[in-house]
Amino acid sequence: MLPRLLALFIVFVFFSGCTLFRTAVAEEEVPLEYPGPDSEIASMLDAHRGQLNHLMDVKIATVKDTLRFGKPESVLGNMVSDAIRSRAANELGKFVNVGIIGDSSFNLFFVPGRLTLGQMYEFMPYENHVVVLTLNGHKVAELINQVAEMGGAPVSGVRFNIDDNNKARGILVNSQVIEPHRKYRVATSSRAANGGDIFPALWEHEERVDLDISIRDVFVDYFRGKSELYDITDGRIR
Amino acid sequence: MRISRKEFLKQAALFSAGSMLPFTLSAFSGSKIENPDITILYTNDTHARLDPFPSNAKEFAGLGGIARRASLVKKVRANQKNVLLLDAGDVFQGTPWFDVYGGKVDLKLMTEMRYDAMAIGNHEFDRGLEGFAEAAQKAGFPMLASNYMVRETPMNPFVQRQIIKEFDGFKIGIFGLGIRLQGVVDPALHGDVRYMDAERTARRMVESLRNFHRCDYVICLSHLGYQYADDRFDDVKLASSVEGIDLIIGGHTHTFLDDPVIINNSEGKATMITQMGHSGVRVGRLDLKLSEANMNHNFRYYTIDGK
Hints:
The structure holds two protein chains of two kinds.
Chain A: H1 2-14, H2 19-29, H3 39-47, H4 49-56, E1 59-63, H5 75-92, E2 98-100, E3 113-116, H6 117-123, E4 129-136, H7 137-149, E5 155-156, E6 158-162, E7 168-173, E8 183-189, H8 190-193, E9 208-214, H9 215-226, E10 228-229
Parallel strand pairs in A: 1-10, 2-8
Antiparallel strand pairs in A: 1-3, 2-5, 4-8, 4-9, 6-7
Helix pairs in contact in A: 5-9
Chain B: H1 5-17, E1 19-20, H2 31-34, E2 38-43, H3 66-79, E3 83-87, H4 96-101, H5 104-112, E4 117-119, H6 128-136, E5 143-144, E6 148-149, E7 159-160, E8 162-167, E9 170-177, H7 187-190, E10 194-195, H8 198-212, E11 217-222, H9 235-241, E12 247-249, E13 261-264, E14 270-274, E15 282-290, E16 295-303
């Protein structure tokens, strides 16, 4: 009875006059919208939780600050694109100029504390692999301008400014100006290469190499290697 | 029952989310609407979201969760005699639950909730055909895909083209459509399963369900996607080009349709398209009010929220 009175009191404070009675009644007539968990299903789920935690509660790194995706650049955006670029270069045994991935398929941001394998699998829930595309300088410039139009995206190996008209200015790829006819290697996810992340400049590539590396493993290994994660960005997009 | 102010405000917002559909016939009103004859509940693209979204989710923090969805379904069942519970595919992949259990827990709990059928989404191939079959053994309901040729593959025992549900003599035919596999599913994963043209298959299915099985109402569980700017086949194109589907419960594009979209095709018949976003954040509800001459629809959705 006490909680119920309390609820009525809260309603009373919020609403006044004759609306009080009606709203209070309406609330109790509509119990369906926000149900508590069904106890049978919840306990069946819990019966499987031990194994889940056993496999997933593995420490990958320690998060020291709140880390987010954002525009024009962000700590998580920089990290994931750096991770793809460096891993692709390692696997190929060749220099890779650019790393890029859309941030829409990432599900989490990080809060200070233990970063676990389970969180990593939610962070990137899909099993894509790494793809390296060869683009000429024209296409790389087009790609950077698409990123500028979006207000920024996770990109590695590149520095530029976004001007008031959402154009990229002062583009440097690996600290050098773009040469239109030179060939550049761009590492990305299979999802982006297949058109899932909307970077149309990637779709007109020359060579395409699909590497047998899960994109999730790339991130797990990268964060594990860093061990402590801080909110640091380097001003690659300004 | 204790209801906080915050919760009240959310409930108030939810009232406005439900709506009567524009083409509803007005033969019945008031009292009839409160006692619908057949209630269709549905989800799509639940993506292994068995627990609610964690607090550090980029979107939908705290929403979803199969135990709360189950309790909603149970409460609806307590009030409604005739309930259909359907899913438009992509139960697989998205959280560590899938990495550890490969969809088995999802399908087991969906069986416990008495799902009647689900479509096959592209992510249902993520563990290959053997992986699918292993998980599908936990499913006490059929997987519907009329345009996937699954004969002589491990998928075969679990997949049907259609089911027919009869409620007090009213026959509802339900068939499934899967997305074109090429470019979406790795050939190494889909093996010998072959995609057949969705439009042509749909036409054949409707013809069979309407004229041979004498269904009164036809539902398509579609994992085609709501709408594409290019020429990929989608739910809107399906509704426009194939007559005789009453309801398309869609998926794949993770589209949150606040209201069903009505497409009138060339014969002047209407097809309703609905889709509930993804991850079990929403559950859709369509109540069919039946009479001999005409039928009322009442739509609303529930947001799975609260503790």
